[in-house]
Design brief:
Blueprint lengths: L13 H6 L9 H5 L5 E8 L8 H8 L7 H13 L15 E5 L2 E7 L3 E10 L4 E10 L1 H31 L4
Amino acid sequence: MTTEDLSGETPEHPQDLARAGSSPVFRSLALDSIPVPDYADVIVVPVPAGRPSDPRIWAETLFSPQSMPAWVTALMGLRQALVGLVGINRARAGVFDVAGVRGEEALISVDDTHLDFRCGVAYDAGARLLRVTTAVRLKGWRGRLYFAPVRLLHPLVVHSMMVRAAARLHEPRA
């Protein structure tokens, strides 16, 4: 995906002026792995200064139980209780472990009977932006049934986890 300002107007911010002649290109390991997803989203949040730049740390913090609001933890528990009723495996421990890191992005990769899930967690230290890219390939009716409610809540869940992860990474280490 590329973007380009075709309006001919002068950018009002200095950083926009510096980039006015370029066309940024968006890439993600998640979309490299599933280039034609059934579902995809990209969520970006600005992060205050003083946070680590290692994408593995961001991914591990983002998916830690401490970064999940209580309502997300409750939804995950409900998921674990209900998925067996339609023949979907319960999530195993470590399901959101980092599969690899390339450049500024960590990749979480999960393949199951009902869907394939990729999540790229990237941190742009220069712009202080945290970006989470999700790509999902659904498999059969179980995948479509499972993902129907998830599709609605996914952006809210991810955004809240990102905000909590940014706050946690600023806390002094014990």
